[in-house]
Automatic annotation (TrEMBL):
InterPro entries listed in its UniProt record: DUF4124
Superkingdom of origin organism: Bacteria
Every DUF4124 domain range: 4-46
Identification of the protein by name: DUF4124 domain-containing protein
Any one Pfam family match given in the protein's UniProt record, by short name: DUF4124
């Protein structure tokens, strides 16, 4: 059983450069024929991805971005929770109103005076309250 190592080969290839008879630069991995003037080109390989100071900077930016996104999600959840709590309160009030409308009661005007209501007015209030509960409270 053989083991295959997935490691970049540590081979350095030699690259040669020379001018041909037309004055154009030529490159190759073999030196030109004997007698032709040439030079060896030193090529520095690029840094491997994922190494160096920039990786730490990228990691730090990623962490900051993740923190900002988490803060935004928390704020959205808090706003949703407040809205849900407000709606639950409104639904409770509507259900309490429906109970009162189905029992004996009197209407109170804005100025505090009491008045009786017709059966039709009470029926409309009951229907409107039921409709609101159905639309907003499930």
């Amino acid at each position: 059983m053989g083991i295959v190592l997935l490691w970049p080969p540590m081979v350095s290839a030699e690259i040669y450069r020379w001018k041909d008879e037309n004055g154009n630069w030529q490159f190759g991995d073999r030196a030109p024929q004997a007698g032709e003037n040439h030079e060896e080109v030193q090529i520095t390989p690029p840094a491997l991805l994922g190494q160096g100071d920039s990786v730490n900077e990228i990691h730090q930016r990623t962490l900051r971005l993740r923190d900002v996104e988490q803060t935004e999600r928390n704020a959205e959840k808090e706003a949703e929770d407040k809205e849900r709590a407000a709606m639950a309160g409104a639904c409770k009030e509507a259900n309490d109103r429906l109970k009162r409308l189905n029992s004996r009661f009197v209407y109170v005007n804005d100025d505090g005076t009491e008045r009786s209501a017709s059966a039709q007015e009470v029926s409309e209030d009951i229907d409107n309250t039921k409709k609101w509960i159905k639309e907003h409270c499930g």
